[in-house]
User: Fold this.
Amino acid sequence: MNWEELAKTLVQPTDSKIVLLVMDGLGGLPVNGLTELEAARKPNLDETARRGICGLTDPVFMGITPGSGPAHLALFGYDPLRFQLGRGILEAMGTGVEVGREDVVARGNFATYKDGLVVDRRAGRISTEENARLCDFINHQIKEINGIKISLYPGKEHRFVLKISGSGLSDALTDADPQKEGRPAVPARALQPEAQFTADIVNRFLEELKMALSSEPKANYALLRGFSKFPSHLPAMPDIYQIQPAAIANYPMYQGLTRLLGMEVLEVGPSTEEIFEVLEKNYHRFNFFYLHFKKTDSAGEDGRYEDKIKAIEEIDHYISRLWELKPEVLVITSDHSTPSVLKSHSWHPNPFVLVSDKAAPDEVTHFTERDCRRGSLGRFPSLYAMPLMLAYSLKLKKYGA
Assistant:
């Protein structure tokens, strides 16, 4: 029996509330001896650690670097090895793109291409307005290829969604993304013979896009990853856990994932202040809240060590507002680590703290990677986070006689 099936036999509805704050890409590696968490001045996060029980989480397995999709699935109690979702469908759902059963979608990045190399995977993080202009231009330049309709939908900054529509399409493709800067562009490859037609369409599109954007100073190419179709079966969180969940996230990928899981996505603006305002305004309506904070991950991916420290210090200012709401369970953690020195996601475990009046505080007094290692929860799979939250909110019945 897997966890989702077991949960259905154990969960019981209660009025107790759970707040899960995910500080994206929070974990780091030392620079001059200190990680970003260790260097930051964060009295409220440290006080949360003193009030709770701490540990470290692994999203998939030790040593496996996760994408944001599987890392979040694990936090919500879905085995990321059983429920595999392409980044494309998550981005599409979050952007509000209608995806038919035969469509294939992919997450796109506008990028800078020079002398045969991808020199900037995010095109200098162009503005959202510039992104919209480029998508509109491409949609007029490239409408279809071999009878397959091509559509681009702008997202935030450099991100967009590619949707290809027609018959005979497959999502069994590799990413058309070298993953690192300073490398040649790579084509999409078919993972199965029946996907070759789709791979040819995608690669033809990239060539035509490169020609169409040749005069652009920054966004003159595109990278594609996470080719996917609409998932055939994904159980909803309200059905599994008997909760009323809400998501407060302003990036399309996280909105898309939470919609697929049956959460109500609440409208929120780009500022950190608004995350907490929306939570407070809607606190009476739901009993499970997922809050997403992106700035720590963005700074880590760009290698901006000092900015990641500032992002941690910025959100620390608001943590006391979570205490004031007095949820039965408060968890602060991350989906994955994004060390500034690596400029990418990594396999390093994530700091985790759970506060509940049903949990006697452990000896941890600072919310850092090294301190959480000494916590009473030890090192555990992220998949255990949801059972822990349900247990400490008294939403799980006894197992067995």
User: Anything to note?
Assistant: The chain has 15 helices and 14 strands. The CA atoms of residues 71 and 335 lie 5 Å apart. The two ends are 17 Å apart (CA to CA). The mean pLDDT is 93.
